[in-house]
Amino acid sequence: MGTLYLVRHGQASFGADDYDQLSERGQAQALRLGEYWRERGLKFDAVYTGTLKRHSQTLAGIVQGLGEGSDLPVQNRPGLNEYDSKALLHAIHPAPLPKPDTPELYRHHFRLLCDALSQWMGGTISPAGMPDWNGFSDGVHQVLEEVRHRHSGQNVLLVSSGGPISTAMGQVLGTAPEVTIALNMRLRNIAVTEFSISPKRLMLQSFNTLNHLDSDQHRSWITSA
Question: How many CB atoms lie within 10 A of CB 58?
Fold first, then answer.
């Protein structure tokens, strides 16, 4: 039985004009995860990722940390790309929002985002430029099915974002939409979620773990946005 390692990208640039760019901390987080796996002799048979910059940058850091022998072909899948949070927020709050640069504005931002996600998943809003919820979910499902059929008995690395990873969790566990949203909001940067891969199904092994940052040197590196 193989294992699918789903990794949320490292810390991006929340609040900046271009969120889709790892911060210095995000780059260090990705490198550290690769080093952690190298120390434990983990090797991958296949790699899947979305097509966003923060996905490719995270993967590059992991590969650097893994070292020699980790140059595997990368399967780029748009179905692993994140939803457009700006489009979601605009669909329920057309007026410009203040920059979330205080704790209260940060909480307000994510309360609105959770509301928008709920309405999108329920089919009551159609954010501009985005697929409907069923289309987004189907994109994630197609990648999971590809992994299940092609890589039983292998170790597979998948680098994506909180939305697709929580959607994958919801599909494997059969959760209600509100639970999928809650899982999404709890995913931390560079966190690892593991599924067992068998020809019949994917099964949850772990969720949102940061064992690679569990040291006095690295605990301050834990981030969420």
Answer: 32
